């Protein structure tokens, strides 16, 4: 592994900014050109550094720092609670889209770098798909592309519909009130993983416990490392089992590919950790948050009830509108000097992009802070962009469409069972979502 250069903690004096001709314009500035108004917070030697503690936000609240930077400093300097040094943070749609697809920014170079970060440990495993660059990244994505394709998601839809119908029927049979997260949005991804990935149903208790630790920022590095070691050992054990007794599932297929040398054992393990934890966490949280958002925007829910064919479009709008996570995801490291807007990102600098902020960019979305299930504008960036675009996007979309359609159809009078302000939201977690979602019908 190439040793990455140390982070350059300096900020850049105005003179070091790129010559105009080479600039990618700053969104919102008049053609990104012309003199900038003096910023009272800007020290003489470069842009200000914003400390971003990423405070707890409940329900659908949007991070106030992201809201401000998006409008005032679409590429800014930040520090986060853990790690070392500073990083750039891009918030505008244009910068986020450009930076996330620019091959001059590397994920592999984050390995071994204590970049300023949200969590005491790096969530994505070393050697994992999120922390590799081409050609390793391309090879790993190709191995699993089919399993996560739109076509595969379409094939799995009938199963998902049947599962959703049964889960809702069981919930109804037990009578109101019920916790929708416990009854429907939590079990849905477990069934999906059991069928597609071949995770034994009996192991979900352990996996859910590990998920809660790994995807939180509320624990020590030692605890995080211990749980990461346990989950890696679990998947190594499962790989041993599946190489002796292969099943008709993706994990068995990957184990066979690993034996044939198409991927290494650590790559198999880290890919599995990413797939399993993301599926369990994101589908549960986002589906429950989508239902919460609709229940608290009754006029939007009424539109969907009147016109259920709007569900796919509503899912996209909910993905755009909902702040799915706290803070930001994995950084990238610049492999050469790159001019962005009116700043120069130096080779070796760490860069974060905020897909959440990009999804609220007023230069791209009309009234971006309004939920509008009929919206038909630019594609949202909730699933990321570029080569690291979310692997599970088609599966997640399919599950969200199935969950919402089933609830609309089966429970036309679905309503919150407690006032919205009494819904408890997860604290100290990376992905946001309600702890429980009490509903009645
Ligand atoms: C609402 C649900 C989800 C959202 C909003 C979401 C969002 C994202 C985002 C923003 C990224 C990172 C993009 C980047 O690094 O630039 C990502 C990557 C990834 N997601 Fe998802 N995700 C969701 C569900 C899932 C599911 C269900 C899976 C299960 C397969 C999954 C698996 C992954 C993997 C493996 C990556 C890393 C891909 C790579 O680095 O090449 N995600 N996702």
Number of strand segments? 11
- Multimer state: single chain
Q: Give the CA-based shape.
A: globular
Alpha-beta classification? alpha+beta
The CATH class is Mainly Alpha
Fourth-level CATH superfamily: Cytochrome P450
* Discrete helix count: 14
Unreliable spans are 1-25, 28-43
CATH architecture: Orthogonal Bundle
The ordered string of helix (H) and strand (E) elements is EHEEHEHHEHHHHHHHHEEEEHHEE
CATH topology group: Cytochrome p450
Helix content: 40-55%
CA gyration radius, whole angstroms: 22 Å
Cofactors, ions, other ligands: protoporphyrin IX containing FE
Numbering strands along the chain, what is their spatial order in the largest sheet? 1-2-3-9-6-4
Pfam families: p450
Family: Belongs to the cytochrome P450 family.
Protein name: Cytochrome P450
Helix and strand topology:
Layout: E1 49-51, H1 64-72, E2 75-79, E3 87-90, H2 93-100, E4 105-106, H3 136-145, H4 150-174, E5 178-179, H5 180-185, H6 187-196, H7 204-214, H8 221-244, H9 250-259, H10 265-295, H11 298-306, H12 311-321, E6 332-334, E7 338-340, E8 343-345, E9 350-353, H13 355-358, H14 393-410, E10 415-416, E11 438-440
Parallel strand pairs: 1-2, 3-9
Antiparallel strand pairs: 2-3, 4-6, 5-11, 6-9, 7-8, 10-11
Helix pairs in contact: 4-6, 4-14, 6-10, 7-8, 7-10, 8-9, 8-10, 10-14, 12-14
The structure holds protoporphyrin IX containing FE.
Walk me through the structure.
Helix content is 42%, strand content 8%. It has 441 residues and is of the alpha+beta class. The protein has a single domain (14-31, 45-440), classed as Cytochrome p450. The chain has a six-stranded mixed β-sheet, covered by helices on one side. Strands 5-11-10 form a three-stranded antiparallel β-sheet. Helix 1 (64-72) links the parallel strand 1 (49-51) and strand 2. It is globular. The chain binds protoporphyrin IX containing FE. Protoporphyrin IX containing FE binds at residues 100, 129-130, 141, 148, 274-275, 278-279, 282-283, 286, 324, 329-330, 355, 382-384, 388, 390-392, 395-396.
